[in-house]
Amino acid sequence: MIDLLRRLLAPTPAPLAETDARLALAALLVRVARTDGLYSAEEVERIDRVLALRHGLDAFAAARLRAEAETVEAEAPDTVRFTRALKEAVALDERAALMTALWSVALADGLREAHEDQLLRLVANLLGLTDVESALARQQAEKAERE
Predict the structure, then answer these.
(1) CA distances from 142 to 75, 108, 136, 137 (A)
(2) CA distance 30 to 73
(3) What does the pLDDT look like over 104-131, one tens digit per residue?
(4) CATH, range 2-6+16-146
C-alpha cells in the first residue's frame, strides 16, 4: 500500500501492476464516494459490488480490497496521480466501464452533488474520455440503478 503511494508520487511513475491498478481503482472509487462529505452504507456496498464484479472477487475479498483502498485514499495527496496511473494501466475501451463504475458509486446514495460532478468531470478528462463519454457512462449507471 505504501509502495503504491510511493510509486504514484514518483516524478515519472512506472506503469502499475495489475494488483496496484486494482487498488488504485478502489481508492478512486472511495474518493468519489467521500467527495460529498458523506460515506454512506450504500456507497460502501456499491464499491464492494463494483470491485467484486470487475475483478471476480468474493464478497470478503472485495471488502478487504475496499478497506485497504480507504487507507490509501486517506493518505493520497491528489486524484490526478491515481487517475493517470489508471489511464496507463487500463485500455481505452475499458475506461468507459471505469467511468460507469465511478458514476454508479457517486449516485449510490441517491444524491447528485456538484462536487461529485466536478470530480468526475476531471477524472473523465484525465482518463482521456470526453464529456459526452462521461455523460453516457452516467446514463448507464442511472439506468442500472433503476433496474
Answers:
(1) 30, 9, 10, 9
(2) 7
(3) 999 998 888 888 899 999 999 999 999 9
(4) 1.10.3680.10
